[in-house]
UniProtKB/TrEMBL annotation:
Region (Disordered): 161-201
Coiled coil regions, renumbered to chain: none
Keyword Cell inner membrane: no
Pfam families, sorted: Alpha_kinase
Matching SUPFAM superfamilies: Protein kinase-like (PK-like) (SSF56112)
Organism this protein belongs to: Acrocephalus arundinaceus
Polar residues bias locations: 170-182
Swiss-Prot/TrEMBL keywords: Disulfide bond, Immunoglobulin domain, Kinase, Serine/threonine-protein kinase, Transferase
Identification of the protein by name: ALPK2 kinase
Extent of Basic and acidic residues compositional bias: 189-201
């Protein structure tokens, strides 16, 4: 079910966020690290909708730090501390998974995030398939601008590494889906109701 998948996605992203925090927190000057709150699945056999999710209620201004409307970074929020750290988290996960996985839809209150998504390459990553289109990974690679937190973590700029990789992988590119198949991959319908939240765009 969609609910179970959403639970799985958020909790997978949460595991990456914990690893990110373990690496970033000890760094001098890094400060607070964004946290993805846990989401719990409850089973209600007597109910029409047998599965539901429960999570901590976030109180305060709910902000989208990265969006999924063609501009992977929300430029209005990108320069906030939480926004920059979210972008760095995306870059860190991208590098950790060798460009196979990206956490998307980073949103929440302050440093507490919820309702996130994950994009993976078509084949998935380590047996896990995301719930967002693969095109988000391409988009991120093209649009991400490193900030001071990326530098603190020693992340490589995607501009230069991407060009080098393209030369190196041109022989292998036959196995990648061509652009026409990528365009057909649309995010799952179940994610659409969320879009009304971002009416500010």
């Amino acid at each position: 079910s969609v609910v179970i998948q959403e639970c799985h996605v958020q909790n997978t992203a949460r595991e990456y966020a914990k690893l990110y925090a373990a690496e970033a927190e000890p760094l001098e000057g890094f400060g607070e690290v964004p946290e993805i709150i846990p989401i719990f699945l409850i089973h209600r056999p007597a109910n029409n909708i047998p599965y539901a999710t429960v999570e901590e209620e976030l109180v305060g201004e709910f902000v989208k730090y990265s969006v999924k409307d063609g501009k992977e970074v929300n430029f209005l929020r990108r320069d906030s501390e939480a926004g920059k750290k979210c972008c760095t988290f995306q870059h860190w996960v991208y590098e950790k998974t060798i460009g196979n996985l990206l956490v998307t839809d980073l949103q929440g209150v302050g440093m507490k995030l919820t309702d996130v998504g994950i994009a993976t390459l078509a084949k998935g990553y380590k047996g896990f398939k995301g719930n967002c289109s693969f095109s988000f990974i391409e988009q991120f690679r093209a649009l991400h601008q490193c900030n001071e937190y990326c530098e603190m973590l020693g992340l490589k700029s995607l501009r230069t590494t991407h060009q080098k990789q393209r030369k190196a992988t041109s022989a292998k590119s036959k196995s990648l889906p061509n652009s026409s198949t990528v365009k057909k991959m649309v995010p799952k319908k179940a994610r659409e109701p969320r879009d009304f939240v971002s009416s500010e765009h």
